[in-house]
Amino acid sequence: MASYKNPVPTVDCIIELSGERVVLIRRKNPPLGWALPGGFVDEGERLDVAAVREVKEETGLDVALVEQFFTYSDPSRDPRRHTLSTVFIGRAQGEPQGADDAAEARAFPLDALPRELCFDHGTILADYLTYKRTGQRRKL
C-alpha cells in the first residue's frame, strides 16, 4: 500500500465579543504565542462542530457560528506540518477563560491585537479587519 502525506484539516474561529473585541488564546505548547482558538478536526467530525468544540475546550465560551470566512492552505502556515484551516466567524457572550492547551484566553480590542501571533493568524486577522471595514474577502 502506498504511503501518502496529505494535509491535515484544522479549524480556527474569530470570536466576536461586545465592545469590538476578539478572543485569542496564549498557547501552552509550541509554537508559543497568541492564536485564534482552534485545532485539529477529529475523524468523523464536521468542520463547524470541530470549531464549536475547540472554542469551548480552549476558552469555555459557547460560540454561535455566524459564517465560514475562508480556508487558509499555505503549506508553511504551521511549522509542524501542512495544515488546511477553515476559519469561522462566531459570536459569544461572557469572558474567556484559558483551558485545555490554552495557557490563557483573553479578549482584545480590534485596534490593540498582540504582535506575537502564531501560525498565519496575523494574516487571518488582517483579512478579517479588511472584511469588517470593506465587506471584501481575501481573493483566491
Automatic annotation (TrEMBL):
Domain Nudix hydrolase: 6-131
Family in the record: Belongs to the Nudix hydrolase family.
Keyword Hydrolase: yes
UniProt cross-references to Pfam families, sorted A to Z: NUDIX
Protein name per UniProt: NUDIX hydrolase
Molecular function in Gene Ontology: hydrolase activity
Keywords: Hydrolase
Superkingdom of source: Bacteria
Gene3D superfamilies: Nucleoside Triphosphate Pyrophosphohydrolase
InterPro entries membership: Nudix_hydrolase (IPR020476), NUDIX_hydrolase-like_dom_sf (IPR015797), NUDIX_hydrolase_CS (IPR020084), NUDIX_hydrolase_dom (IPR000086)
Keyword Cell inner membrane: no
